[in-house]
Amino acid sequence: MYSLLYIDCMRPKYDIRNNLKLCRLKAGDLTQEQLAEKVGTTRQTILSIEKGRYSPSVGLALRLSQVLEATVEEIFELKES
Q1: What is the pTM of this model?
Q2: CB 78 within 8 A of CB 16
Q3: Are 76 and 17 in contact (CB under 8 A)?
Q4: Distance (Å, rounded) from C-alpha 46 to C-alpha 42?
Q5: Terminal Cα-to-Cα distance of the chain (whole angstroms)
C-alpha cells in the first residue's frame, strides 16, 4: 500500500493551461472543425484541449502552433498547482 507522502509526491506540480480558443479565433475565426482538419485531428480533440481535459502531444502542440501562427508558449502555459 502506498503512503500518503508517496502519493502526494506523485501529483503533478504544474497544470497546463491553454489559450487555444482565443488563438483559434485570432487566426481567422476558425471553427473547431476547421482547425481540426488543418492539424489532422478531430473536432472532439480540439474541444477537449480547449476545455483542459486533454493535453496534446508535443507533435500536435507544434502543429497547432504552425497553423495558428502563434508560439507554443502563446497557446499553452504552465501554472504551478
Answers
A1: 0.81
A2: yes
A3: yes
A4: 7
A5: 26
Which one-letter DSSP state was computed for residue 10? H
What are the backbone angles phi and psi of residue 76, rounded to the nearest 5°?
-120, 145
Task: Render pLDDT for 34-77 as a digit per residue (tens, 0 to 9).
Answer: 999 999 999 999 999 999 999 999 999 999 999 999 999 999 99
Categorize the per-residue pLDDT at 18 as very low, low, confident or very high, splitting at 50, 70 and 90.
very high
**Single-letter residue type at 81:** S
List, as one string, the DSSP characters of 12-68: -SEEEEE-HHHHHHHTTS--HHHHHHHHTS-HHHHHHHHTTS-PPPHHHHHHHHHHH
Under the banding of pLDDT at 50, 70 and 90, the label for residue 21 is very high
What contacts 70, CB < 8 A, 6 or more positions away?
A: 23, 26, 27
